[in-house]
Amino acid sequence: MKALSRRSALAAGLASFAALGLSNAQAAPASVPVIWDGKKMFESFEKEATGISSQGPAGRPKAYLAFDTQCRDCWQLHCKLEPFMDKIEFVFCPISFMNIHSEPQATTILIDKDPLAKLEEHFTHFTDLDFRGIRYGLVEKLPVEIRDKVWTNTKLHRRAGCRAVPYGVFKNSKGEFLPFDERLTVEELRQLFEL
Question: Which of 3.40.50.2000, 3.40.50.150, 1.10.260.40, 3.40.30.10 would CATH assign to domain 2-192?
Fold first, then answer.
C-alpha cells in the first residue's frame, strides 16, 4: 500500500509539471526515485530537520533542500536559487552524504553565530583549489548534539526516498509537493515556484 501512495505522489508531482506547460523530460528531475515521498519529506523536514533559512519577508512559500557541503551539484543549485531567495523561504538542511568532510563542515556552518553567512562563505570558497569550501577544526571538538542534527537530516533524507543530493521539495499553492534539483534551469525553477 505504501508503494502505491509513493507512486501516486510521484505521479502528482509529474502532473504538476505538465500543468505548468512543461514536458516531464524537460522539467522534472531526470531521476525522481520511485520511492520518493514528497509529502513525507516536506512534513518530516518541517518537524524534525535542522536547517538554515534564507533571508526575506515572513510568510513566503517554503521549500526544503537537502544538500551536502562537498557536492558540486548542490553548489550549482544554490547559485540558481539566488534570484528567488527573497520570494521563497529556502531551508537548507545539510546532510552527510559525500565524504569525510561533509559532516564536520555542516556542523561548523550550523554552530556559527550567523549560519546563513557561514553557508554563503562556504559556497564562495567551494571552487578553491586547495580545499573545497570552509575549513573546520578538530572533529572531536565539534559539539556532538549538532553533529547528531546533521545525521538526523541525513536519516530524514533517506527515509523520504531521496537517493541523491541536492534534493528539494516545494509545496505549491495547490498543496502539491514538487521535487527539484540542480538539473532544472532557472526558468524551470521560476515556474515550479510559481513566480
Answer: 3.40.30.10
Asked whether the bond before 166 is cis by omega within 30 degrees of 0, the reply is: yes
Q: What is the pTM of this model?
A: 0.83
Q: Are 81 and 189 in contact (CB under 8 A)?
A: yes
Note the helical H segments in the chain: 2-19, 24-27, 38-48, 72-81, 102-111, 115-124, 144-159, 186-192
* Residue in 150, 155, 183 with CA at minimum distance from that of residue 167: 183
Q: CB-based contacts of 17: which residues, under 8 Å, 6+ apart?
A: 23, 24, 27, 28, 178, 192
Number of C-beta neighbours around residue 175 at 10 A:
8
CA distance 122 to 120: 5
- Radius of gyration for the chain, computed over Cα atoms and rounded to the nearest angstrom: 16
Question: pLDDT tens digits for 132-185?
Answer: 999 998 998 999 999 999 999 999 999 999 999 999 999 999 999 999 999 999
